[in-house]
Amino acid sequence: MKKTTNIRDIAKSAQVSIATVSRYINKRGYVSDVAVEKIKKAIKQTGYVPNELARSLFRKNSKTIGVLVPNIANPLFNQLVLHIEKKARVLGYSVFLSNTDDNAEKETSALNVLMQNRVAGIITVRSHCTTEYKHIAIPVVAGENHIAPHIPVVACNDELGGRLAFKHLYECGCKKLLHIKGPHTFEATEARCRGFLLEAKKKKIECDTLELSRDFYETILEDEIERLHFTKRYDGIFVFNDITAAAIMRRLISLGISIPRQTKVIGFDNSFLGKLTSPSLSTIEQPIEELAEKMISLLFSRIGKKTKLSSKHVEDYFAKPRLIVRESTKEK
Length: 332
Ligand code: XLF
Known about the structure:
- The chain has helices at about 5-15, 20-25, 35-45, 50-60, 75-90, 105-115, 160-170, 185-200, 220-225, 240-255, 290-300, and strands spanning about 65-70, 95-100, 120-125, 140-145, 155, 175-180, 205-210, 235-240, 265, 285, 315-320, 320-325.
- It is an alpha/beta fold.
- The relative contact order is 0.12.
- The model has no long low-confidence stretch (mean pLDDT about 90).
């Protein structure tokens, strides 16, 4: 097996000291222009790749941030991660991604791996850990769920989103409404539900709710949705996210219910998926890029500073949702 090149080989080939090579690679301390040229040439000739783990041990943290999301199979989360990664890269950082499956145990073990790899900070979306972040020594930003008083939350204004969803169905003339809500452990979908029901109450419109046990998963149609009894014909359905709304629409169509003529359907997210369904899906947009931007800016404003572990509540950030009207609520 070919021996991998190390900084000793570079120093030898460039005829400079190991300390000079180390200062050059870690961007710490003075290195003369002549030495820089020699080192660059030696790196090129040997194909040397710096050992990022060794460098992060030296720096006490790596040029990596950890990102924990429930499941990148959900387009909202994969779009969010793409934006986060793009923005982190501009700042010279890469992303160490883990899926938690909305499971506190999986999240805890992923968190341990991130800490062992000395990530500089963590973005954790829809966390279900209740104590693990309380004493964490590196900066953390949370998406959607609150996890500790000193950790800021970035989310969409979900309650407002729920209200917008109701108003739209109401303006479309819907009178018998159903809200298919997310699990009660998701703060975001609880808020969506609250907003929706609040507006329905104001207008004295009857509204049923059905709670799903999990976010979207591959077999959700067979395992959960096909067992839902649409006992009465609802003329308007608000589903807690787009991907589940797509599955609900499929179920309604298979029952011979015409969308939007008999039942109007609105989702939440405005992930790319809504443009691909037939009919295309009306939805409430979460400004995904803005959320990613805010998560990154809050995280990097804390990286490199001493993390204060106070019990004081830090301010959360709520982005404004927006109604997107497509075929699923339009009269043809
Ligand atoms: O947690 C909520 C529920 O699903 C999240 O923002 C999402 O809307 C993503 O699809």
